[in-house]
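seq:
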Amino acid sequence: MPAHGDHEWRVTVRPASTTLSPRRDVVVAFDLEGRPTSLFAGGDTYKRSLASDLYGRRTEGGARRRWRVPRDRAADLLERSLTIAAAARSAVGRGERLPGVEGAAAEAALADRLDTVLGWTPERLQDERRRFLNAYAPIAILPPDQYGAVVLQATFGCSWNRCTYCTFYQGRPFQVRPIPAFREHVGAVRDLLGRAAVGRPGIFLADGNALVLSNDRLRPVFEAATAAFPGRPAAGFVDVFSGERKTAEAWRELRAWGLGRVAIGVETGSDRLLAYLNKPGGASEAAAFVALLKEAGLDVSVILMVGAGGRRFAADHVEASADLLARLPLTGSDLIYLSPFVRQHDSAYAERAAADGLEDLTEAELGAQDRALRAAARAAAPLTRVARYHIDEFVY
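struct:
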């Protein structure tokens, strides 16, 4: 590839993003508002959240490591991203042809995008934290297929919030956002995203289980969400013991309003393990609930944990989960997530496990359980995609 000054450019201009690579080992991406979204450099991948927190990720010895980048280091990396954009803009200004940009119209479009990028400074990017906090309460977690969605917080916390392993909503009582406040929230999110909303193809109704609300309360939520962000399917979490209270007709009504996918934290097919985790709803209820959602025409994302219950529950967890998966009417549009269990040190699970002498699985045992559950999922639902769900890799 011909060199351009000190660079060997690769440029990709997509409808919702711009990617610049001055050399093979450095890649930076920007949204349509001109904000950096990711940077690959030195073998590490960095992702910037809407609050301008920067998270690094690398693979070491086959294991994935993730960390939050200190603010001074984050400012340096954000400045590096802007420097790369400035170099690309200079090349365009000199009339250099950049690979991936063909024709005068494409060059002009790239120049406009780069001018937007260069309207930012590291300081202005860091100030996006204030705008984010004006729009959002803390966002705990999303399913991986929803990382790129527009998150709208119709509720706060989790209506159950007593599962022993979960610390996502500690100290956050379940609350429903009043509709006038929700509409203001939607407007603040729309302002924060700006033109970058084009790159977010879905809506996720947060927090833990917003879909537990009655349809009468959900209707104005869907109306406000789809009016601000039209043409996007909505998704949300719901637990088996909450979601099964709605009828198929109620779920079909939600589908008509824009709901497309429901993410269900099934966790395990073992009723014994569910009881140990203090999570209501057993395998029979889970099978009936998934069938109900499929009858209503909805896609589902079924989440199972890998390693929950440690060695004591390992055999029962795999056997019962395989049995449950075989009973689910899953199709090619559904998802099965296998989520490596993380024993949170400040959780009730950690306290109980220590008192009971419950041993976590070793890395080798975790790998074996993952493979066993993956094989069971593929045998039960060969058309359904099976993916890993690392809860510590969520960035919004």
